[in-house]
Amino acid sequence: xxxDITIIGAGLGGLALARVLHVHGIPAxxxxxxxxxxxxxxxxxxxxxxxxxxxxxxxxxxxxxxxGLVHExxxxxxxxxxxxxxxxxxxxxxxxxxxEVHRGELRRILLDSLPAGxxxxxxxxxxxxPLGGGRHEVTFADGTTVTTGLLVGADGAWSRVxxxxxxxxxxxxxxxxxxxxxxxxxxxxxASARAVGDGALFALAPGKGILAHREPGAVLHTYVALAKxxxxxxxxxxxxxDEATARVAAEFDGWAPExxxxxxDGDTAPVPRAVNALPIGHRxxxxxxxTLLGDAAHLMSPFAGEGANLALYDGAELxxxxxxxxxxxxxxxxxxxxxxxxxxxxxxxxxxxxHELCFxxxxxxxxxxxxxxxxxxx
Length: 378
Ligand SMILES: Cc1cc2nc3c(=O)[nH]c(=O)nc-3n(C[C@H](O)[C@H](O)[C@H](O)COP(=O)(O)OP(=O)(O)OC[C@H]3O[C@@H](n4cnc5c(N)ncnc54)[C@H](O)[C@@H]3O)c2cc1C
Known about the structure:
Layout: E1 5-8, H1 12-23, E2 29-31, E3 45-47, H2 53-59, H3 63-67, E4 77-80, E5 86-90, E6 100-102, H4 103-112, E7 119-120, E8 125-132, E9 135-140, E10 145-148, E11 150-153, E12 171-182, H5 185-188, H6 190-196, E13 200-205, E14 208-215, E15 219-226, H7 230-234, H8 241-250, H9 257-264, E16 271-277, E17 290-292, H10 295-298, H11 307-324, H12 329-359, H13 365-377
Parallel strand pairs: 1-2, 1-11, 2-7, 4-13, 11-17
Antiparallel strand pairs: 3-6, 4-5, 8-9, 9-10, 12-15, 12-16, 13-14, 14-15
Helix pairs in contact: 1-4, 1-11, 2-11, 6-9, 11-12
C-alpha cells in the first residue's frame, strides 16, 4: 500500500473504515472535530441489521464483541393510537434479524479496536485544496495542514469534503423531532414504561407521533415527531425548557396521559432536531483521490433505520475495496462507488416512503400495513 489514507470524521462510518483497513494491515488516520471520545453523549438504540450493519462488524472482526452488547428483548415493537390502544404488538422472540445495541457502546468497541494515535481528536477540517494527481491538502481549525493521497469524507450530514464531489446540500424533509429522556422509568414513570414495553413504541396520528425506545437502565428515550414547517421549530425558544415543553405538549392535547408524559415528564431539557436529507439518488462523478461514506454520501430520513447501518457497511466495503486493490486506489474507489450509489438510493427511497406512511392521513393504520407488507415479503 503506497497511498496514505486520511479519514475526516470518527462517526460509526469512519471508525468502521479505519478498523477494516487495520484488519488488513493498512494504516489510516482519522481527524475528528470533537475534542475527545467523551465530548458528546452518544445516545439512542440502534438496530443492527443482518444484511448490512452485522456483516460490517464481521468484516471488522468485532461481531462477538457486538453480540455482547445486545439489549435482550429490545427488538420488541408496538404500534399504538393516540388513546394508547395497542394496535400491533410484536414481542422479541429472539429470532429477529435486528438486534438492538446502544450507540455509545457500539462506538466504544470500534474506538477500542484501533491502534493508539489512529484518531486525532480536536482536529476540525475547515478547508480542502486539490493539489493535482489525486492529492489533497486539508487545513484544520488549529491552522495545521496535512496532505494525503486518499481523502475520505466520513464527516456526516454537513460534510466539508462533499463539495469536492457534488453541489448537493441536505434539505429539511418536513418532520421535526423533539428529543426527551425519562430515567428510572419503571419506578418513577410506571404507566409510560408499561406503554413503551421492552423495545420500541410508535404512537402515531396524522401529522404527528411519539416514537419511544426503552434503553438499558430503565431509560425511556423519546423522539416526538411533528410534520411542521421548519420555521415552527425555529420559533420555539428551547433555552426556556418549560415553555418549549408546553408548546410541544399542546400539539398532543387529548392524547393518553401515559403517552404525553413522555413529553412533559422529561428529566432533561427537550432537544430540537430538524430532519434533513440529501436528494434521493445523490451521486457524483469519480474525482481522483477522494470519496464519501455514510451520511456525507447519503443523509436520509431516519424512518428506515438504515443510516448507521449503512455508515458501518460503507466503511467496511470501502476498506475491503482498498485492500483488494492496494496499488490502485482509483480502481478501489470505482468498485466501492458502483455499489454504493444504488444501495444508498434504494435505502433513501424506502426511508422517504416510510416517513410518508408514518404520518399520512390514515396513520397509524398505514404504518401497520407497512409492517404487514414487510412480513409477507418475507
Ligand atoms: C434522530 C435520529 C435517529 C436515528 N436513528 C437511527 C436508527 O435507529 N438506526 C440507524 O441505522 N440510523 C439512525 N439514524 C441515522 C444515523 O445516526 C446516521 O446515519 C449515522 O450516525 C451516520 O454515521 P456517519 O459516520 O456517516 O456520520 P456521523 O455519525 O454524523 O459522524 C460524523 C463525524 O464527523 C465529525 N465531523 C463533522 N465535520 C467534521 C469536520 N469538519 N472535521 C472533522 N470532523 C468532522 C463529527 O463530529 C462526527 O463525529 C438516526 C439519525 C437521527 C438524526
